[in-house]
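job 3f2a | input accepted
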Amino acid sequence: MLAERLGAHSPSGNLKSHKCRIVVRDFLHGAMHPRLLILLLATMGAFLQTPSLAGASAITGTVSDPSDAAIVGASVTVTGTDGMAIAHILTDGRGAFRFDNLMPGEYQLDIQKDGFRQIRIPLKAAAKNPPLRVVLSISVPNQEVAVHADEVASQVGTEMAQNQNANTLDRAALDRVPVFDQDYVTTLSRFLDDSAIGTNGVTLVVNGVEANGPGVSASAVKEVRINQNPYSALFSRPGRARLEITTKEGTPNFHGSLNFMFRDSVFDARNAFAEVKPPEQRRYYEGSLTGPLGHSKKTTFLLSLDQDEDDRQSTVQAEDLNGVINENVPNPMHHFFGSGRVFHDLTNGDQFWIGYSYERETIKNQNVGGTVLPEAGTDTQTQEHEINVSYLHLFSPRWLNQLRFLVGHYDTPTTSLNANPQIIVSGAFTGGGAQADTRRTEYHFDGTDFVSHASGKHDLKFGIDVPDISRRGMDDFTNTAGTYTFSSLTAYAAGQPSTYLVQRGQGHLVFLEKVLSGFIEDNIRLRPNLSVSLGVRYYWQNYFHDDPNNLAPRFGFAFAPGTHGKTVIRGGAGTFYDRTGPRPIADLLHFNGENLLRFIVDNPTYPVTPGSLTEIPTSVVVLDPNAHIPRTIQYSMGVERQLGPKSTLSATYVGSRGIDLFRSIDANAPPPPSYAARPNPNVGQERTIHSQGYQKSNALELTFRGRPSKYFNGQVQYTLNKTYNNTSGVTYFPGNSYDPGADWARADTDRRHKFDLLGSAQPTKLFSVGVALSLYSGKPVNVTTGADNNGDGITNDRPAGSPRNTLHGPGFINLDLNVAHDFVLFKSRKEAPKLSVSLSSFNVLNHRNDLTYVGVITSPFFGSAVQAIPPRRIQLGLQYTF
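job 3f2a | predicted structure (882 res):
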């Protein structure tokens, strides 16, 4: 994770000892755009001299965790050269400390806090000392960590990363809230904003670096955060589009966690669409172990493993010419993950660690369910190897550098269960074969190198971020036998398909994708009650490098108007560039008219004979020469209030505008009103990727977090939102390519109301209770005819006069509960082992939450659902920690 600025004053006092490191973001050398190099060199010139600490009458500073949240109650001690303690103090509510009336000379500053690595800083007291900024890295001295998110984060303050509309779960909270299959990422994802997520999906940041996964198993996750410091220039996406994970480190003593979870459908309710409850069972084994490596306490390790065996089933709800089809289909998933890391603390305060992980997953009968029949399923197998490296170098208490990077190999083949042509009857069933054979491989590199300098009121950070450099293989063997689309069961019975799509030619493809960024940010403490953040991020991507000046400015402020600092006014704004991901690049290289040939036949005879394709022109994918990398401008203003010692309430308005968003059009579509023929008869569909989409979003967020009493510890958030746009992403086609503006309507992701509660309580010593409650209004559903009425080869046409997304989808109601009891073993020992037994129930109310809503007017299921999320399920959990 990242360390940023802390600064304030607090009364003087005395303190203890521990060990730490100051964590900041990474800086990765590599191929760099000239403008980026000039930008970084210009900012470094002013900071070539490192001022030294020389005799002082006062020493002040602040202490924070790696995510820049203030650490309250950290023990700070000033000792002399003889090791005798001179003064001691505990940090205040903003993590600040101050020592007055120190005689000139050499001292040591010892800082410690349970759950964090201890640090010792040598210093010389001088007449004038700049404030110290200390970031304690996370340690695991005990599985029951004494520092909880509600004690640290639920304090209003004027630091940039102290915004109270963030959502956080630390290790203690993760063990108490109901988490399905220990999937912490999904549990926290409820607080993400679907409308803020870019083309490449949710941005996952692990220990400060963008990654494909956490890199460790569940029990080695230390903390999960969303929307922390939403306008930081250190990240590519805004706060509600990224999920940050901090993982555990090695410890000088042996500690570990073993987990087992079990579910069986005999204890579950029946799926709403299953006539017979299918037999299902899940077994999950997971654990982590940390400790010293050899005799030296300076070299430690962390091992984590999990084995997941999920014998699940999917329910088909479809209709063909013989009537309604309802059946349960096995959809087993088996997953293994293993990771090992070695940490070494150097004598000069530097720290180095290196880790390796391996992951394997197989899924049978994927995509089957709803209107997709078993014959149209696929099998997938995923393997990934990854190496992570991190090196922290401390030049001085105010200059430091953090380098982190990862290299990996990824391989995922997808195989259709049979080779028959695919049959799609819009809204009724999908059968035949899947026609989905692909293979995706990649050798990827992600990394960042980050330099931080703290001086007086300023905390400067600058560096290079490489979100992705990948050699990608995208082998496309789809639709080799073709796909027929029928507008209705009546058309299917008559043998009258609306379209036929088939591909021929070279499906193998290899290309290099490069995404580079540079950033600079200065967090400035203008006054004790006023902080400002100024930053800018530079963005560059190959294949879509339209503009060499893709600069994304960021700004934030936090102001406490009162004398007691219990109210903070916080705001900010920033520009965030999108990135395409590999799929659009692969489409451009595949379908260039030479490599992979795609033929789209309107109203063909059934079945199509191979010889009839000789007169059909190939379809192509091209990039609009005027296309720009999409960008989102987000801005917000809010008020935060301290309600009690450990509770806060915030109200925040968030607005955003998506500009130059990706979408696709058929530039060679048959023109209205007759839609008789394509303008260029030598080309079929000409899919043009351009950036003329627009999105407008306004939201009000009300967030409560903290511990108001012993009966609740957690967070509650309500969001009132309204999002409109005229695109759903780079693969989206408007209903009419000659009038894409007519698609302006509610966004596919628009939920007007969203309420989430996530927390736990300890009502008695006998057990703890965790609760997760979600109440959402429905998303919109698009109404279509099921046919290709305008002859562009796309079956997304809407009825005449019908706007996009006019059908209201179902809402969502879900309550999860977890009850746990801890058995402490060997109570005589200082750190006694513990066995925790938990019983969780997911969807306790057994509410039917419809998932796939049909908007095809010719479908027998029009206006209703064919799938729902699972019903009530019971999960037994055992956890042994030592």
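job 3f2a | Confidence is low (pLDDT under 50) at residues 1-56, 140-153.
job 3f2a | closed
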